[in-house]
Amino acid sequence: MVVKLILLIAFFAVMILVGVSTSKTAGSVDGFVLGGRKVGPWLTAFAYGTSYFSAVVFVGYAGQFGWKYGLASTWIGIGNAFLGSLLAWVVLGRRTRVMTHYLGAATMPDFFGKRFESNALRIAASVISFIFLIPYTASLYNGLSNLFGMSFNISYKVCVILMATLTGVYVILGGYMATAVNDFIQGIIMIFGIIAVIAAVIGGQGGFIEAVRSLAQFESDNPVTLGQPGAFTSFFGPDPANLLGVIILTSLGTWGLPQMVHKFYTIRNEKAVQTGTVISTIFAVIIAGGCYFLGGFARLFDTAAIYKADGSIAFDAIIPSMLSTLPDILIGIVVILVLSASMSTLSSLVLTSSSTLTLDLIKGNIVKDMKEKQQLLIMRVLIVFFIAVSVILALNPPTFIAQLMGISWGALAGAFLAPFLYGLFWKGTTKAAVWASFIVGVGITVLNMFIKFIASPINAGAAAMIAGLIVVPIVSLLTPKMNRSRVDTIFSCYDEKTLISRKVALPEKEE
Fold first, then answer.
1. Other CB atoms closer than 10 Å to residue 63's CB: what's the count?
2. Could you tell me which residue, 220 or 508, shows the higher pLDDT?
3. Is the dihedral angle over the CA atoms 284, 287, 290, 296 positive or is it negative?
4. Cβ neighbourhood burial of 110 (10 Å; 0-12, 13-18, 19+)
5. Alpha helices (runs of H) in 402-495, residue ranges in sequence order
6. Which residues lie across from 79 on neighbouring strands?
7. Burial level of 102, CB count in 10 A (0-12/13-18/19+)?
8. What's 238's DSSP letter?
9. Between 94 and 314, whose confidence is greater?
10. What is the sign, positive or negative, of the torsion defined by CA atoms of 387, 389, 392, 394?
11. Which of 74, 198, 289, 318 has most Cβ atoms within 10 angstroms of its Cβ?
């Protein structure tokens, strides 16, 4: 207990120290929200990765999908690494940085407002962000309750309030730079933590070969496999179709999440994009691949601790059950790992929520002439508000809180992914198409909550994203085009000539 408490106190002290040391960079709106657009590759890559993978992934998703799909759940981590990280950086990174800088856009709703010359779009996007980021934020606390109870015998309530307070303090003090630096520290902890945990858990099963042999004996209850043993160690698992839906939502979904895309706004230069792409991908392979690989052995820990009173599986209890037999020092590391994953995502979400609501809804609409100091004050007040609301939801969770992350991802990515992507690349994207994507993305996700025409909220989110990618070009071709000269002017930002060093790009011809 002493060792675990020392680790926890040291972790908290470092987070606060970072907030204090970065506070000088948060004196302006640009510094508070974007870090002055001068954030280097390592900080940006780790900020992207740690915002991507929260305790919901480590405790909830890894246990749930590992139980359902076995070792094939590792494909989710691979998809996250190469679709959600590598491809996202390659496709979105550079263009997002160039166009948002040209437009002077600080948030995703601000991008929609300026790219499509519509204040109504900006307001609608900010409202969608506000509504669906709050439940996403609340879902982050779920993964902590069982782990803290197992490690410290501390109540869930104390854990939630402690984590929320600490995160709020360093975000309010240092803004984006505080979150980026802390994300880097937390990311390092996550890397070493997941490697140590996998080694310990697999070692406790007699090694990798023996663990796989034991897992192969389980028969799947999926009708596709007809109860044959070995389904949970097969290449695509017992349910490839639903596995694909999970991969699509958790990988391509990041392309439309405001808190994820926001990281590309802050990149310093071309070199940072290239280096950040590699770092972010490696980070995702280790963290996401490691989490889902670990979860793939979930059925080896089929004990009474993972069952609810009604006999159903408590998926959030699977990973804690796997870890309960580890040495105290490793359990302490796991707690810090999960805290790191949760706090990094929480800080990103509350900063995105507060800046979006302040800059895109309140400024210019509710308060016509808002000075910079007022904007900073309101953003800090809203950070407190968002954290307080998320704590209230987490302490008194609705019955569907376990599904909140999937619903939030589905609505946000379903609404934003297609118009953002097309808006960066295609001059023909119209204002009406953006509205159509907002309606389709939110509509499919919300209707499915009540009608259940798609059994899984994960698959509903994936369907919402795919629908948006189809709807936007169709509606764009059928609706009035934007002013051609204005669109050409916006896209001219990509054609601006820039001198770069030869270590970044070779010249067309030698002098």
1. 28
2. 220
3. negative
4. buried
5. 404-425, 431-451, 457-478, 484-491
6. none
7. middle
8. S
9. 94
10. negative
11. 318
Give the alpha-carbon dihedral of 307, 310, 312, 316, to 10 degrees.
-50
Tokens 């609404």 belong to which residue?
415
- pLDDT tens, 416-433? 999 999 999 999 999 999
pLDDT in tens, 325-358: 777 777 777 777 777 877 888 888 888 888 888 8
Nearest C-alpha neighbor of 32 from the set 352, 376, 360: 376
Could you tell me if residue 346 is inside a domain?
A: yes
pLDDT for residue 508 is more than 60: no
Query: Per residue, what are the HEC states of 125-136?
Result: HHHHHHHHHHHH
* Residue at 428 is within a domain: no
Residue 509 confidence (pLDDT):
61
**Alpha carbons 363 and 374: distance in angstroms, whole number:** 10
**In which domain, by residue range, is 380 found?**
2-396
What's the token pair of residue 382?
């809203």
Considering only CA atoms, which of 253, 257, 204 is closest in space to residue 76? Answer: 253
Amino acid letter, 451: I
pTM of this structure: 0.86
Which pLDDT tens digit goes with each residue over 9-23?
A: 888 888 899 989 988
CA distance 108 to 130: 12
Q: In CATH, what number is assigned to the domain containing residue 71?
A: 1.20.1730.10
Distances (CA, A) of 185 to 81, 143, 189, 374, 509: 20, 20, 7, 31, 43
Query: Domain count of the chain?
Result: 1
Residue 204 has pLDDT above 90, yes or no: no
The tokens 């002439």 sit on which residue? Answer: 369
Inside any domain, residue 500: no
